[in-house]
Amino acid sequence: MASVHESLYFNPMMTNGVVHANVFGIKDWVTPYKISVLALLYEMTTSKPIALQERRRLNKLILPLQQGPDLTLDQFLKTVEECCPQTAYAVKLRLHEMADGELKDMEYFFATLPTPFSAIDSEAYKTSVVGLFMRHMLLAYNKLSFSQVYKLYKALQQYYHSHYSQPGDVQVGLPALAADDSDMDLTSTEDNVGERMEKEELDTAPLHESELSRGPLSQKQAEYFLARQAYLLKNDENKALKPSALQDELNNMLKFNPDFAEAHYLSYLNSMRVQDIFISTHSLLHYFDRLILSGSEGKSNGDEGYGRSLRYAALNLAALHCRFGHYQQADLALQEAIRIAQESNDHVCLQHCLSWLYTLEQMKGSDSSVLTEDSVKMAAHFCLPYLVSLGIQSLVQQGAVQGKTAHELMDALKDTDILHWKHSLSELIDISLAQTTSIWRMYGKSTMAQQQAQLLLNMNSLEQVNFGVQQNNTEAFAVALCHLAELHAEQGLYGAVSEVLKHLKEQFPPHTQHAKLWMLCDLKIQFDRAMNDGKYHLAEPHVTAIAALNKTEGLYRKAQVLKALNRTTEAYSILQRLQLYCEKTKYTEMIIRVMLVTAELHWESSGFATALPLLLQALALARQHHLQALASETILHLAFTQLMLGVPEQALGVLHEAMEPILAHGAVMDKGRALLLAARCQMAMAGTRSNGQKHAALGLAVQSLGEAAAYFSMLDCKERLRDVHYLQARLHHTLGQTPQRNKCAMLFRLLDQELQAPGAAVAILSFIQIL
């Protein structure tokens, strides 16, 4: 494999694609900063040998220094020093010789540069990135008149001495030797350049380190900046400039060149980060306006280029409205894009339109499976694997909601994975793994979900990683990490949950577009923990925050809090409204959860017979959609209802059906509830048996209660632990085990005093609050 050194000096085809678009241009400014870069290249070529690791770091630094905006001397030296302190010191000395010397010292420096024409053994071959940069600078320098050379020398002195100025001193800004790109056009005459230079005045504005540039950037610098920020926004938004800072830089860039289409598009992407509908729409429209007016599309494609910009403008506008939930406007823009694409016979654009059409139908809650299948077939016909994969993944998502079996969905995802690996679609591989994680969690297979999440987090990206980006800030990674946090919370591992959430907060700051995922995850975990602890006053404030992020989840959890506070009527009203809404939107999981909470409300009024049909309906729905976790929870509710109706044998038989999946994949709370319920059934059955069988049944109940206590202790669930210790004390008293009885009675009394609940109500609460 070629080293970084070789790729920069010998083989220009090894460099990044962004470089090829800019490095062959001859328009640039001669600035003191560029002289500093030349000094660095000179020292790297002529100084004593540099350690291999340091040379590699310096070589990786060359492209950003050449293509990026001008830096202050302090920033420049600090950057070089991080790679190689020895070279940074040599560059500093070289600049000192020129800045504190005379004009002839700068002339001598340019005369001794190892150019491809004067040094045969130089590493700077004329076809390399470094060679082109040095040739460009030498040609530009040789074009300068004497007055321009003198101004460049004075600017170099100001550049150098501003590095040593005191903090209170006024720093003199650095002049650019050209008012626009045409100043360095090598076809210009020397006299014309001189006349333009006579009209320039030195810029005396203070130089701030936070600014990319005080004045207009060159074309190459602007394109490099835009390419870098766009790449970071896509792959690692956390490392891009903050939205406000980036918008300031873009506004400054557009102030000097309002027709810079790419800057308008980056402004559109930046506005989408903060959900600014006005600026994002404004920037998107300006992007396509400038693209059409500049003629960049039409130069190669004639009228076709003009039409292509129009139809993709309409398509992007439709996508923008979809993002903000403006379905009517999105539909109108999409129909316009389809009309223009049909007139131009653009099948690729039509396939993108069809993909957005079924996405829009899904967002509106309509069945779009037919449209999605048509999109997959047509995309495969026109050899568009990206759209094929997205269509299949959409079908898988719809199939999961409609109750397809796991093996059908996994077979479909396996076909998409073949496409991903065949065409190296790294982003879709991540999405596929995240989707598989979500499907396994929905089906209640926590072990499989955790395995898929870990596979995604430990997988190396297929994409080339630029700018030091780690491929771990996409939506797929956020989804996988949120699943891991919830899975650890279910097992009572709150220390691990804190670590995962801490990483999520660092990787996805609140201003980023995927931050809502971990915010909702964090709030749900805090809510469940407070409810398990019986601290309803702590759970209530979380309801408002959850509702702001997800209205459906907010209503469901509000009903849970109201039920816990014995505000039955209000809770029942909310649950009825929520069930109607979920039936309309076909949100099956929430429908089952609402049914379970409604059944618990019937328990409050001793309406166990009334709750039975509701639970049977919920169980049928869960089994129809293969939702094992919800089916197991429904069986727990059914078993408790049967126990309260006086048939403990049937309750224990039903409970055994759910015990295995709960112990294998269930949350710690569900395991404790199942074992506590099993112990109650065993206690109820023991009352009808002979003394020998009775003692054996009570012994099994004691064992089940001990295991339940261990699970509740992991969650520090004091209310349920109090119930367990109460029952343990009663059982040990019946079995004549006085020391164990006294120990459990003491634990019960301590918890009862801590919770400050009337002791007489404990026996009733132990039955009503079992689930």
Automatic annotation (TrEMBL):
> Where in the cell is the protein located?
Cytoplasm, Cytoskeleton, Spindle; Nucleus
Question: Main location per UniProt?
Answer: cytoplasm
Q: What residue spans carry the region label Disordered?
A: 181-213
* GO CC entries: anaphase-promoting complex; spindle
Domain Anaphase-promoting complex subunit 5 N-terminal: residue ranges = 30-162
What does the record give as the function of this protein? Answer: Component of the anaphase promoting complex/cyclosome (APC/C), a cell cycle-regulated E3 ubiquitin ligase that controls progression through mitosis and the G1 phase of the cell cycle. The APC/C complex acts by mediating ubiquitination and subsequent degradation of target proteins: it mainly mediates the formation of 'Lys-11'-linked polyubiquitin chains and, to a lower extent, the formation of 'Lys-48'- and 'Lys-63'-linked polyubiquitin chains. The APC/C complex catalyzes assembly of branched 'Lys-11'-/'Lys-48'-linked branched ubiquitin chains on target proteins.
Q: What is this protein called?
A: Anaphase-promoting complex subunit 5
- Please report the organism this UniProt entry assigns to the protein: Oncorhynchus kisutch (Coho salmon)
